[in-house]
Amino acid sequence: MDMTVVELSRWQFAATAMYHFIFVPLTIGLSVMMAIMESVYVMTGREIWRKMTLFWGTLFGVNFAMGVATGIVMEFQFGMNWSYYSHYVGDVFGAPLAIEGLMAFFLEATFIGLFFFGWDRLSKVGHLVVTWLVALGTNLSALWILVANGWMQNPVGAIFNPDTMRMEVTDFVAVVFNPVAQAKFVHTVSAGYLTGAVFIFAISALFLLKGKHIELAKRSMVVAASFGLASALSVVVLGDESGYVATEHQKMKIAAMEAMYHTEPAPAALTLFAIPSSTPGEPAFQVQLPWVLGLITTRSLDMELPGITELVEHAAGRIQTGLIAYNALQEIRADGTNAAARATFDEHWPDLGYALLLKRYRTDIENATGEEIALASMDTVPDVWPLFWSFRIMVGVGFFFIAFFAFWFYRASVGKLDTNRPLLWVAVVALPLPWVAIEAGWFIAEYGRQPWAVEGVLPTFYAASGLKVSDLIISLGFFMTLYTVLLAIMVMLMVKIIKAGPQDNLLQAADDDEEDFVIAALPPTPANQGLGS
């Protein structure tokens, strides 16, 4: 495989996925918060809460439409750019994606239409049920996407069938309840809730600074401060759980995130800051907190956390074992009745993917040299410093929002939301930070998994399609141009709606010449709302 093709394919998928995930967390967060607001409206009958639901629901609709437009491309790329991946693990990966499509069709597409056009056609309680079903559908859609992505991080409930040359499901329950998938789901969803809270709080703070829509802004800020504080705490706590699970299943990712080149005595220290050295190895300078990393990742005082060097040695051993499986597989393909070869393969097949790492260096990997095995084992190490700093950016933003919402929760409880203009400007300026942390988190999850498309099973370079470099350059340029235009349209529409302020009708927020676009953008069909791969 031409590595330029592989790298361009990775760039295209990463770019479209991270563009798409600009919209997904806000969709998740706004869906739940507007359901909370409508619940208050139904319980109290106060018109201001209906107007709040209408206003934030309009912004939700624009964001959802853009999520559909950018997300639907993702599934096509599996066939276009990653055809061997689709063949190799499609039996496992396809089921969650199919279920997600059905969830989107029956819950999101149907009930979003009822949410927007059912205000005068449904009872208060009936419309409230619809709104909560929109929120439920959005969250369930994310669940199935993350089940699929979690399997790529920790491939459980499936085995390699030497007769079909594919991974096949043996335990679908194990796939669904994969601990990595469940940890990623609750962490990702709570990050979406935080994003929705920050968005509502920042726009409401801007209203207060402008002296507009005061009643709506204050009530929205109270809801956002309460919901945001709970979400920020959840993000950090559930992120810790995600790290604990990764320690068990993705030790190299954890070692790279901490720039930990050698195994330390238990419990390992947490590195707060480090400067890389001019040559690969230990950082030139670092500031550490003793014991903290070991306590967080292993939740014990005596369990060691392996370093990069030791993990590379372990990978070399798995490559050797994988070669035994590979040789047995060749015997099975030559003679399907060879019982001894099948017994050998069944014993060693979990390491077959490690042997495939050698395909980067030679086709006849059964004749691989010690030097080639050493090179392949080094390939299991992702780039350390991008992961190191991305993790610290993500964690730093998370703790910032705990303090941020704790402060504003207190201000809301004493009725002082609008008494300090500089603090309100801080709230407005903080608006982009959730996306910074979320994109850093997805970079850690996906880049930290390299060199694997499926951890320990399928190398990334082995999963790509045999496309031409020119094809990928053209498609990458096209997608980036299209997605940038869509992002610009979304920002312009949202700015227009926010300037217009709350209305009595969902579509009054846009001018007549833009109203048709908003209506047309609301999707009648399902689409992927949570893929980050």
Folded structure, characterized:
The chain is mainly α. The protein has two domains: 3-247 and 386-521, no CATH class; 308-378, no CATH class. The protein has 20 helices and six strands. The protein has helices at residues 3-20, 24-44, 47-80, 83-117, 124-153, 172-176, 179-210, 214-249, 251-257, 292-298, 308-334, 339-348, 352-356, 370-378, 384-413, 421-429, 433-447, 460-463, 469-500, 512-521, and strands at 158-161, 166-169, 270-275, 285-289, 452-454, 458-459. It has a two-stranded antiparallel ribbon with strand order 1-2. Strands 3-4 form a two-stranded antiparallel ribbon. A two-stranded antiparallel sheet has the order 5-6.
Q: What is the beta-strand fraction?
A: under 5%
Low-pLDDT stretches are: 507-533
The termini sit apart by: 21 Å
Q: Percent of residues in helical segments? A: over 70%
Strand order of the largest sheet: 1-2
Q: How can the largest sheet be summarized?
A: 2 strands, antiparallel
Domain tally? 2
Characterize the overall form: globular
Sheet/helix structural class: mainly alpha
